[in-house]
Amino acid sequence: MTDLQKRSLLKAAALTAVAAAALVGCGKKEEPAPAPAPAPVAAAPEAKPEPLKIAFAYVGPVGDGGWSFAHDNGRKAIEAEFGDKVVTSFVESVPESADAERVIRDMAGQGNQLIFGTTFGYMEPMLKVAADNAGVKFEHATGYKQAGNMRTYDSRTYEGAYMAGVIAGAMTKTNTLGVVGSIPIPEVVRNINAFTLGAQSSNPKIKTKVVWVNGWFDPPKETEAATSLINGGADVLFQNTDSPAVLKTAEAKGMRAFGWDSDMTAYGPKAHLASAIINWGPYYIKATKEALDGNWQGGGHSWWGVKEGAIDIVSIAEDVPAETKAKVEEVKKGLADGSFVIWKGPIADNTGKVQVAEGSVADDPFLGGLNFYVKGVEGKVPGTK
What we know:
By secondary structure, the chain is an alpha/beta fold. The protein has 11 helices and 14 strands.
């Protein structure tokens, strides 16, 4: 190979190397693959609020067919309305004694935020417990003492008693009615008087006999009292006690009677004339909604009746005359729209003293302290002179 050929080969090799280097220098640099975008972080679900814990104290068994049964129906109405926003519980047959304070205090200690005491005798125990549990809301049925975290509520049971009286006055054959009374407090005396006034609106000849049993739920005593009234000439019986014993007694002895607080038809279908019932559901739903919404306020009093859907008379017997049924419906409508007033004068007591003057209407404070029998009711209210 000549020197010229060698030089040509070396030159070509050098050019090739330069060209290769140039290609590398001018080429596009390979970039690393971009990292995948991070997956969006799901927002943490909002913590579900704890349900409102609600407790009820009942003076009788829930199966009494009357007062406590009606309150328990109200508790169930809360559950149906609010579902898992609430948890309810109850303790039944709580005596009106030191036991009531123990039970109610235990309810507060278990974390219940709304507590209902459903009988008059729980008033003082609830006040004590409320004073020690400022963060708990207390509701007391039929009482009159309140606190910053305790209020009272009631139903105008006398409206149901009056409508029952309208029927009783039309159905009696002896013109003598009998009432089994529980405890002689204004609530019960009002009902006896309203029943009598209603009966007198149908039959001015009516007289009413009363036997007291000094308890809310005592079937043997209620049976004994009902029997005594029947033996004394009463052929239609009424009660302000919590069991169906009075109606059962009337059924057994061929007389007539009424259910009280709940529909008691099944306990004495032949004797049953009607049932004056309480629907606690509307008030309990209202109170619970206020507690859930943060709008609940203590210290007040509510007194609901036909107007608010709390009182009614139901299951009127078929043999009650059509005109009497129509009169009951008229009274009910009047109570609902305010056109009918039960406590309008003149109303005299059974000594002849005028208690409500002609043209006047008794106000709630008067009714709240009522302690006399109206004309037509025999005897004296226990504890009065």
